[in-house]
Write a structure and sequence with these properties.
about 130 residues, about 50% strand, 1 helix, 7-stranded mixed beta sheet, 4-stranded antiparallel beta sheet, mainly beta
């Protein structure tokens, strides 16, 4: 099972970008999956996660209303639509998937609960 993230790049503040995460060897099914990011000099942080069947979706406050997670299960691909990008969104973005869904909201926020990670894709937002 592997995840391949793509779509990062250099954009200006206010622009939009779509990240993709392609899964090989599995589909996302109803298991938990999402995106995390690591900004330069900072710890990895939660961005958004949920279930591809739409049962649950959770966003970090910093991206709520600007970012949207979605899935194309037929293609085993997860997307992150990022609008109104800000310089503080500059980071390496990682997609992650778990082997199961989670019972609690808190579990979605913890990177330790995800067992498969993509290699990361760099998003740079200039002011």
């Amino acid at each position: 099972v592997q995840l391949q993230a793509s779509g990062g790049g250099l954009v200006q503040a206010g622009d939009s970008l779509i990240l993709s995460c392609a899964a090989s060897g599995r589909t996302f099914s109803s298991a938990a999956a999402g995106w995390f990011r690591r900004a330069p000099g900072k710890e990895r942080e939660f961005v958004v996660a949920g279930n591809s069947n739409g049962a649950r979706t959770y966003y970090a406050n910093s991206v709520k209303g600007r970012f949207t997670i979605s899935w194309d299960n037929a293609k085993s691909t997860m997307f992150l639509q990022m609008n109104a990008l800000k310089p503080e969104d500059t980071a390496v973005y990682y997609c992650a998937a778990a082997s199961r869904t989670f019972a609690s909201m808190r579990a979605y926020y913890s990177a330790a609960n995800y067992d498969t990670w993509g290699q990361g894709t760099l998003v740079t937002v200039s002011s």
